[in-house]
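Reproducibility note. Readers wishing to regenerate the assembly model reported in the main text can use the exact inputs given here. Chain order matters: entities are listed in the order in which they were concatenated for prediction.
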Amino acid sequence: MASDTLSLKIEFGGGLELLFSNIRSHKITLPHLVPIDNSMDGTSHVPSSSTPPSATDGDKPIKTKPADVTYLMHYLRDNLLKERAELFMENGTVRPGILVLINDTDWELEGEGEYELKDGDEIVFISTLHGG
Amino acid sequence: MSSCGNPATEVDALMPRRLKFDRSKDCVRCKEKPGNIVIRHAVYCKDCFTPLVNMKFRKVLQPCINKTISSSRRSKVKADGNLLISCSGGLGSSVLLDLVHRSYFSNRPPMGEDGKPLGGKDHPRNETVWKSAAVCYVEICNAYPEMRDRTEDVRAVVESYPGFEFIPIRLENAFDASWWESLGCRLHDKQFAVNFSDEGLPLSSLSTPTSNSTPLEGLRGYLTSLPTQTAIFSAIKTLVRVLTMYTARRTRSSHLLLGTSLTSLSVSLISSISQGGGYALREELQEEWSSEHDDNTELKDMLNSVRVVRPLRDIVMKECAAYARWNNVKVVGREKLSGANHGIGGLTKDFIVGLERDYPSTVSTIARTCAKLAPKDNPDGICLLCQRPRQKGIQEWKTRISIRSYDDAKLASDSHIPAHAHPSAETDQCCSRRIFPSSFTPYLCYFCHTTLTSRSSRSGKLFTLSKGNASNHTTVSLPGYVSAGLSNLGPGGDQVYPAGGKEIGEMEIWERKKTSLADMKGTVAEFLLDD
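Running the prediction on these inputs yields the following structure tokens for the assembly.
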């Protein structure tokens, strides 16, 4: 049986690390199944946690999906980002000018935000914009 | 999705988005390996990508190295002087450093035991395209209160490339008379100050050679007196460019390389056009610069001009980012400043970067289209501030097409109307022609004049860099090279003084003043026919 959690390596470059406590490389653990609306409810907010998501919210069942890059971006924004979220995300996706590489491959070749994350994936976010 | 209409009312207003890549996910070059990156709908693998970037870089730079620009592959490539690379610590210039080093300086000849190249330095094998290379970094942290000094970070990056000399400069050097003198700029012991609150930009001369203010105070006074955020960003960009060009001159460089990528070039072009810089559009792409008021005759004899080249002009930012990642290029970077997006430059950048993501091919169209444009008339001279060609008759044209004054007292009392348009403004409305320049306006291009004088209609307040940092002075000192340019002006306006030129007191002074209706009638009264 597959594990309920995914271990991921996240890297920031091109100055984007300045928004994430100036730390370039992060290791995080995400649940395999996440809320379909990318909300953080029912999932662990603490990096490296292996707590699986709760499948219910009181009496209402939460609709879930396999964890994808869009969820990862929301997770990073809500848990690791320290300042100025508008410089990382815009209109539910990554801000224009940020290159995303999934296992060293352009995310445009992998289905962009819909790419389903796998255990051990390496996701890199590089800002191509310099200053203001 | 970017729109090309109003999607709320028009169903077909949204431009249909193309697929991100054509055909398959395999590399279009080797056709074997799975692709790693999509560049303008074409897929490339990691192995083919780096040679592709290298090829695009050399394709632009190689024909510009010899004095005569030639695309012939047979001619021997040899530069007239040294090389200066401008580095901001950003992605483009970091990639440029790496590419230049790999292409022209990494294959240094084998050294003998004595540390000298085997076969002697004059051996044809040991000849390099440029004799030496230096990297110039202009630190702009003193222009923004929240910015960190990154000189040492950039130094560490530059020193990781053997053979590159590091030349750090500070933005405030532009206001340091002794710095300019050390570069061979003749200031004639004079510094000029200008009043930005008056559209005529009246000049005054500072009595002491270096004035009492420090270069840093001079810089801050100059920037805080500018009318808009757009003007501040443009002024900093111009100062950085001019400081770098003069440094190229000092280092006897025949070539100055800038790390402007296709994306940033498109941003610069659109931003420059929207600020009134259309006349010097060709210079935004490539320029040959020579200082007109250079006192250093040795340099003058040796070098005709500095050729400013942007070798990354066919490479988009995405390619730069991937190149840096896959070739371990260290990028210093810079934090995005709060409020930076409110200027025309910031807004244009946001627009172009968004456009590049949604429709990648359109960004190259901007640069290609601009490369076909040329000004209709020959220039009137060189703008003393930006050192680029100046169009003829700008002020006459401005006077013709815009409202310069209001007769209606109600309208004139409106606080949004600029000071020069008030009926009480008795000062000269246009240029004053004096042998000693009384006004800065005639020596500025349209772009610079607009930058210095155009106020935002929404706020009459000056943009302040930080709380309590606004300048209370109405006149601010001008950068050293501008003072040198003004000092060298002769009676013709643009000619250089002969040695021992006339003193101000001996010179003829022409002024144009607004005359009242009654005065005009009085002057021609004897010629008027009776009613």
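We highlight two features of this model. Chain B touches chain A at residues 20-21, 25, 34-38, 43, 46, 88-92, 263, 317-318, 320-322, 324-326, 331, 333-337, 340-341, 346, 349-350, 353-354, 356-357 (CB under 8 Å). Confidence is low (pLDDT under 50) at residues 424-435, 460-472, 494-507 of chain B.
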